[in-house]
Amino acid sequence: MNINSIDLNLFLVFQAIYSTRSVTLAGDRLGMTQSAVSNALKRMRERFNDALFVRSADGMVPTPAAERLIAPIEEGLASLAQAIDQGRTFEPETSSRLFRIAVNDVGQLAMMPELLSVARNIAPGIRFETVDAAMAEARQRMLHGQIDIALGSWEPMGPSFYQQRLFDESFVVLMSKTSALGTPEHITLDDYLAAEHVAYRPQGTTDSQLQQTLDRAGALDRRRVVLTAAHSLGLSSIVAASGLLLTAPSRLAKAMVASRTDLHIVDAPFDVVPFEIRQQWHERFHQDSGNRWLRELLFGLFHERSRRAPEVRPQDALAEDQGAGAAPSNA
């Protein structure tokens, strides 16, 4: 197939359909009518001699051929966008750029509301898309330019990634005010182990850090877990209605309590070693003015000034990078 004979705009349509799983939503994203998107899909099917996307109850499901195409197409579009951006300065007041952020429940509930509120006042046309992915998937998609920034407690992603600490996180215990324990100022380890629990196990490293913390306290195999949950959605209602205890990152717990009066937070009854919440990005976006703007905004909003937060390359954790695009490391 001769690349010169292909309308490159078709790749934008392909990416939009793959991402949204919908012809209608793809049109909304691209500013095209549904019929125009359908026509573009028809042309792609003819070019590649494959259905590419099949309608199902879950939307437009990609075929194996589409799955093979998506990575190089997104990488190519990202490289093209980066090349164009290098020739101009990101102007938040007029930009309509879409930023994709890999983030877990802590970031979704505790960070995204503030980020969105502030960013929309500065840059009313920009858009955000959060991505729920395990570390390996997030890393791969950042390598391909499909994710701009990862927020969370992940370990350093590798030698081609930058990282920057935003704040330290810890674990607390969330309980119902009508539980058998009432609303104590503190909870003992014996009471903690005697109660029944929700085990919150999201993707990423938050769960492994909690497991290590419980193991150090000798409580890992002694908790009476009634429910194991992969997501935080609905957990506040479950805790309020069931009397189960939930051990969770403090900012997530505070976000759950913010809109309720029937929940109570106490410190964990064991020593908790704080863990870092960082932002990470691939070196391909280090000079990107839009990515830099987002990094600096996140740093300004969420960096805790308890200690320095150097921006480093993982292969040399002692070497601070003060190159272009670096958020202030001496704040």
Question: Your description of this structure?
Answer:
- A hairpin with a 2-residue loop joins strand 1 and strand 2.
- The protein is elongated and about 70 Å long.
- Helix content is 40%, strand content 23%.
- The model is unreliable at 312-331 (pLDDT under 50).
- Helix 1 (9-20) packs across helix 4 (64-86).
- It is built from 12 helices and 14 strands.
- The strands form 3 sheets. The chain has a 7-stranded mixed beta sheet with strand order 4-3-5-12-6-13-14. The protein has a 5-stranded mixed beta sheet with strand order 9-8-10-7-11.
- It is of the alpha/beta class and 331 residues long.
Whole-angstrom Rg: 23 Å
Mean pLDDT: 83
Q: What are the secondary-structure elements, in order, as H or E?
A: HHHEEHEHHEHEEEHEHEHEHEEHEE
Instruction: Quickly count the helices.
Output: 12
Unreliable parts: 312-331
How widely separated are the two ends? Answer: 53 Å
Within the largest sheet, what's the order of strands?
4-3-5-12-6-13-14
Tell me, what's the shape? elongated
Question: Structural class per helix/strand content?
Answer: alpha/beta
What's a concise summary of this model?
The chain is α/β, with parallel strands linked by helices and 331 residues long.
